[in-house]
């Protein structure tokens, strides 16, 4: 891994929090992701399942974590199963975790090779009454590929039909949404790397540069600062491309006078950042572009103030909608009749701002969190309003990452990344 080793105390704490919420006499199993084939002998780059990483820090394939708080013996309460390494594997694939190294990374003392898993699980199941399975229940999830976790669930149900089933996901949704200090530091590191990429970019952008050249500048800066790369597929959308919310082609030339919407951010140690900025190709915003830009910035700044403990996500978005409505009226994009005649399910502002303002962020860009429950301290949210005007050939979105505080103002993790019109223009023309 490119990142510095994370203190194993984080993973020890995370496991303790999870096990404290397990039912008596229950086992929980977590599997790593597969390495997915492309064709022939090619594979996609490995990306670890965030849940096993959250609970162990293990960042390699073919790994299994087994938790059994009520196991008969103490050494059986946390067990890790790894693909057996060898000199041959080290030569061809690189170093894998040894049992000793696994303890250094995870704090788990009981480490087996993977081939022992079924035998050890059988012994544990003779003492257990319930097993926690780890299904993907994120509100945005649309999974068509059968994962390693899904294959395990099928196998387990056939092998142990008499045991009760419980779900890991509701526990993890709550635990992962509230960040430990170490996690906030890792997200901040990802934000800082994103800042370096953005500052590199500003003097680079000129008329006729291509979107993919911008992408190349960013990935260069991310990787040279120990990031694996983009936290998500980058959106580098010039001109009217910005009005396609998930534009990822990044293959067009940026024309003089246009804006570029950049929804781009680095990851670090599997933790995400999530930034959007909108900059002028020619280094200066037009009067109209500046008007719309500052309207979006006003909404972002006011929406940020609402990310406080006890806030309900649904009500928050209603209030943000009111802010956006006011700004759109001021810009002449909607009028009072539009507001008076709007439908409750599709307010007038949705014509120009059709997506949500905030989502949880952490190990996943759209991270775990139960949206029907009040916001808590140390949750991290994006705040990302936008105004999209196809008829005028541009769209503007601005996005920062915010920590909900126990009291006082929310903390902006991207406070040092240029966002004001004047600062962006100055840096682009330095």
UniProtKB/TrEMBL annotation:
The record's annotation in Pfam families points to: AMP_N, Peptidase_M24
Query: Which terms under GO biological process does the entry name?
Result: proteolysis
Spell out the SUPFAM superfamilies in the cross-references: Creatinase/aminopeptidase (SSF55920), Creatinase/prolidase N-terminal domain (SSF53092)
Span of domain Aminopeptidase P N-terminal: 6-142
E.C. number(s) listed in UniProt: 3.4.11.9
Q: Give GO MF terms, alphabetically.
A: manganese ion binding; metalloaminopeptidase activity
Determine the domain of life of the protein's source.
Bacteria
Q: Which residue stretches, if any, does this entry annotate as coiled coil?
A: none
- Name this polypeptide is given: Xaa-Pro aminopeptidase
| Species of provenance | Flavobacterium xanthum
């Amino acid at each position: 891994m490119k990142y510095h080793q994370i203190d194993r105390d984080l993973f020890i704490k995370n496991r303790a929090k999870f096990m404290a919420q397990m039912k008596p006499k229950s086992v929980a199993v977590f599997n790593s992701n597969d390495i997915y084939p492309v064709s022939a002998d090619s594979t996609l780059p490995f990306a670890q399942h965030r849940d096993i990483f959250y609970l162990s820090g293990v960042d390699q394939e073919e790994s299994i974590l087994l938790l059994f708080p009520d196991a008969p013996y103490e050494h059986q309460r946390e067990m890790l199963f790894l693909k057996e390494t060898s000199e041959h594997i080290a030569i061809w694939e690189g170093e894998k975790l040894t049992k000793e190294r696994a303890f250094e990374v995870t704090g788990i003392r009981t480490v087996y090779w993977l081939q022992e898993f079924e035998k050890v699980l059988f012994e544990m199941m003779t003492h257990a009454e319930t097993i926690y399975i780890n299904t993907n229940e994120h509100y945005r999830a649309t999974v068509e590929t059968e994962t390693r976790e899904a294959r395990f669930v099928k196998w387990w149900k056939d092998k142990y039909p008499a045991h009760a089933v419980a779900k890991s996901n509701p526990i993890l949704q709550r635990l992962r949404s509230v960040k430990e200090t170490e996690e906030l530091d890792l997200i901040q590191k990802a934000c800082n790397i994103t800042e370096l990429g953005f500052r590199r970019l500003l003097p680079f952008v000129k008329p006729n540069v291509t979107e993919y050249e911008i992408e190349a500048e960013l990935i260069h800066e991310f990787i040279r600062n120990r990031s694996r790369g983009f936290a998500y597929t980058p959106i580098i959308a010039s001109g009217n491309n910005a009005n396609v919310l998930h534009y990822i082609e990044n293959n067009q030339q940026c024309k003089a006078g246009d804006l570029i919407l950049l929804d781009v951010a680095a990851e670090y140690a599997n933790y995400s950042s999530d930034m959007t900025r909108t900059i002028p190709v020619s280094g200066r915003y037009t009067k109209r572009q500046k008007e719309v830009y500052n309207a979006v910035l006003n909404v972002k700044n006011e929406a940020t103030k609402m990310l406080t403990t006890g806030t309900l996500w649904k009500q928050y978005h209603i209030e943000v909608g009111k802010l956006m409505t006011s700004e759109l009226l001021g810009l002449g994009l909607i009028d009072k009749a539009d507001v008076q005649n709007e439908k409750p399910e599709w307010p007038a502002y949705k014509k120009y701002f059709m997506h949500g303002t905030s989502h949880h962020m952490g190990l996943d860009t759209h991270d775990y969190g139960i949206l029907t429950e009040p916001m808590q301290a140390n949750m991290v949210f994006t705040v990302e309003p936008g105004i999209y005007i196809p008829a005028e050939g541009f769209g503007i979105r601005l996005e920062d990452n915010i920590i909900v505080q126990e009291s006082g103002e929310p903390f902006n993790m991207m406070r040092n990344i240029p966002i004001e019109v004047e600062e962006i223009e100055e840096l682009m023309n330095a």
